[in-house]
Amino acid sequence: MMASSDVDIQGEGSLISDQNPSEMDALCPSPPGPSRPQRNYERIGGRTGTSFFQTLIHLLKGNIGTGLLGLPLAVKNAGLVVGPISLLVMGIIAVHCMKLLVKCSHHLSAKVNRQSLTYGEAVQYGMENVPWLRRHSQWGKRTVNLFLIITQLGFCCVYFVFLSDNVKQVVEAANATTFSCQMNYTNQTEILVPSFDSRLYMLCFLPFLILLVFVRNLRYLAPLSLVANVVMTASLVLIYFYSLTHITYPIDLPKAGRAKDYPLFFGTAIFAFEGIGVVLPLENKMQRPQTFTLVLYLGMGIVTFLYISLGTIGYMCFGERIGGSITLNLPNCWMYQSVKLLYSFGIFITFALQFYVPAEILIPPAVARVSERWETAVDLLLRTILVIFTCALAVMIPELDLVISLVGSVSSSFLALIFPPVLEILAFHTEGVSPMVTIKNIVISLVGLIGFLTGTYIAIVEIVARNALKHKEALSSFVVQ
After folding, report:
1. Which fold has domain 52-181+192-480?
2. Which ranges does the record mark as transmembrane (predicted)?
């Protein structure tokens, strides 16, 4: 399964050239038939489109990943009662915004006589619908592309931190790892072998991830992606099993968290729910797109149930000890150490899929400016620079929970909560929007904006505070020595 929210299956940039396969093309190739430019099922359906079940699987895959593993800590920040209720409300709002995006895309594509629109194009044509915004409409698409780039590169940063934290923990606990999972519930072992700093692990992963993103055709990664999805699903089953069977009674956890921690909850939750980028590509590729609403409600209902259940069960199981990812709390026995490694493998492969979106937006325009003999070299160089950039950001902020919350607050808020309601007002401007709909859209956008401001501020404050504490501890240790 992919990361929360985790990937725009057909990035905005991939539509610049239909010869570049999207993740959807790579992982769910269409049956033999006409080439993509000749297909007409994007809006009216056809035998070459994806089935109801295939679309449902891709929707689930596009929404479940590292964000899910961080939700137990999010529930801790909100409280045992407030957290699940907030996740339910956020899930309802997120699904509503996804439906708004589909509705606006249909309306605008009919007006401009296009079979389908991307997220950015929908915002662009929505702005063209308002006379005083028409001359600036290109900035609508550019803004959406910018937030897609920030979001996807942010996911890549999260993956660097996730990989380093989990592999570091497995390595350090290797000597204490046993076959009995009953000996260690708190993940505290008597024998730990000091290892490198987690940032050095990130640097160790760097060359391998660079080589991975050199694979420009995602079809070649399809077999590995299938394996990754299987092992991540199996890992989630084991995580659920351990959490359910190790809840301690009585459960004495705060029903509501501290007010200052709630923005961190918001950032993590919206990071998990930011799967809006997959909506239009999935609907456009359906064999019977008229059934997409049912797919959306069923798929996101399952996603919301998983988010609420694992977030609540994980917090009830590990309590105040819960880490930035629930995998970090699993016991040091071979079964659950394997879970960490298998999930890490899945995230490693998913990195290339997440990276595909910003690469397809940023790299083609740069490559088009050089001569043909230099195209491949420039392409690979830019891929290398982008991966190094994400690694550098991860090294600067090696705190998994805070990176997730920061990425969610900064970019996911706009894509999932702010843009869709504004788009509805723009798209139906000439038809007239009722006052109640306008108020509803303004409220949703304000929720997203407040979450963006407070979540970003609190995440940055916490990052600065933790770094200061680490420097202080390192200095004290140096003085003692």
Report:
1. Amino acid/polyamine transporter I (1.20.1740)
2. 78-102, 144-162, 198-215, 222-242, 262-282, 294-316, 341-359, 380-397, 403-427, 439-460
